[in-house]
Write a structure and sequence with these properties.
By secondary structure, the protein is α/β, with parallel strands linked by helices. 47% of the residues lie in helices and 16% in strands. The longest helix is centred in the first third of the chain and has 27 residues.
Amino acid sequence: MRLLLGMMWLLHWLPLPVLARIGEAVGALLFLTVRTRRHIALTNLRLCLPQLPEAERTAIARRHFQAYARSVLERGILWWAPEARLRRLIRVEPRVPLDAIEAGPTILLCPHFVSLDVAGVAVMLETALCSIYTRQQNAVFDEALRKGRSRFRPVRLFSRGEGVKPIIRAMREGLPFFMLPDMDFGEKDAEFVSFFGVPAATLTAPARIAAATGAKVIPVIATYLPGYRGWKVTFHPAWEDYPGGDIVAATRRMNAFIEERVLEAPSEYFWAHKRFKTRPPGTPGIYARR
């Protein structure tokens, strides 16, 4: 792992177009060799985008592996490049919503696109935040990840096992909650809500925390700019009347929003995650190889 981090540090000095192309070459190789993750990605795409021809879904999966590998190498820029370089490469639209954050509790809802770390950096260039963090298995990489994500502003990180109380306290102290809402963590604190027409165990925490704190929910999406020119971080308008009186309906609304963003940049969504690992009772699993 130290060797990998050393390589990432060396590569971050390269111009972004060169580094990005190296990442894409690595991703193309991984698509051919990492069969398990390729199967997961193709299964997710078959379920979520059945209207597309198989060849097109395969092409999206291949580009996804390229985009993901590229994002891993580009973390070196996020972790070690000067602030001036990051500000040149990250285009924020329309801007980090500091006024909304300063006005009261705020949830920055960031779905799992491959460049989500860029969204975090865009926020931390302007203000501190809090978030949930899963400790990495490798201690060396875990330390590098923590340092890289907190080098501009303090970041208050909580484990999922601590529940929502420390998050709510931090939000009431003025920290926005940078939340990743769309992974399968099992049935606890989740509801089976449609995602592209497939029942998906979906965390209800965004709606529940918004209800408990009166927080504004502001979605933020990070995607690649064309031509290897950097990244675009888009802050969408705060959702009105959210969550309302129905937590399940609010969760479905969240998934519908994510679906729309996925269709705008399908290869950049994290298809290699077992999004439908947890199944409704009596429903068979979907990732077993036939």
